[in-house]
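Moderator note: this is an archived Q&A kept for reference. The question asked for a predicted structure of one protein chain; the sequence and the answer are reproduced below.
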Amino acid sequence: MTSFFRSLVSSGYGYLVSAHHMIFAYKMNVLLGLFNNVVALLVQYFLWRAIFASNSGEFYGFEESQYLGFIGAVIFIKQFTTQGTDRRLAELIRTGDLVFKLTKPHGLIFQCFFEALGELSARLYGLVLITLLVLVLVGDWLWTSQLPLFGVSLVLAFIISFQISVIYGSLALWTTNAWGLYLLRRNLFPLLSGQVIALPLLRQLGASEPTNVTGELVASGSSVLYHIAIYSPFQAVYQIPANILIQMSPDSGIYSSLLIQLGWIVLLSLISSPFIQHILKSFNIQGA
């Protein structure tokens, strides 16, 4: 078993290192990406502090420190799981450069996965600053006893994020503008994953009793969004790992949450397989 993993890592090491160096070839992009996450953390932190302050420290049953801890966890998860597999795959399909990938001895998904790991290794530097900020701002509410299980959930979240990226990138076969796919994912992911608003809070907003028309619209919209999000794979990337660390929904068992993530990995593997097979059949290399 050890020799198998050693062989696996040695086979993918070249793709990992190549992706790592490619990320740092655009140093300004790396700095801006880190700056964006830091700004996002600080903006959400002070925004939600103001919201809770105007509601006497409690908002729809959630305490201020609890929700701020969730925000910190989500920003950390975002830094860990965000990847550009969909953009790279879509660009390879659009330009036809995918044929060069297919001439290599390893499978397409194998190459893409280790490239995603290389991208992650390049972002680990940014995780240090994000981690320090999270510990300083909201560290008191983190359940450190759950860190090992949070780590497991984080790895599963990375795999799910990768699978979703592969499916999105594969859709470039049927579109003329890969940039539109990227924007669609950028907008869908935050809304349906709990990244913008925690899903337990959406559930509470949907179950609230409005007193005016605006309140009715907010309640109905929150309810619809919650029921769509809870049955989507997006929430398995952000909401589940964050909930394990913060325990915003104590009724959600940790091990059952991990099983949900594993279930999504299996299901997304079954969904992505036809996409990949269609890609491979759509490109011919010297008639083969």
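Archived answer notes: The chain has one domain: 13-286.
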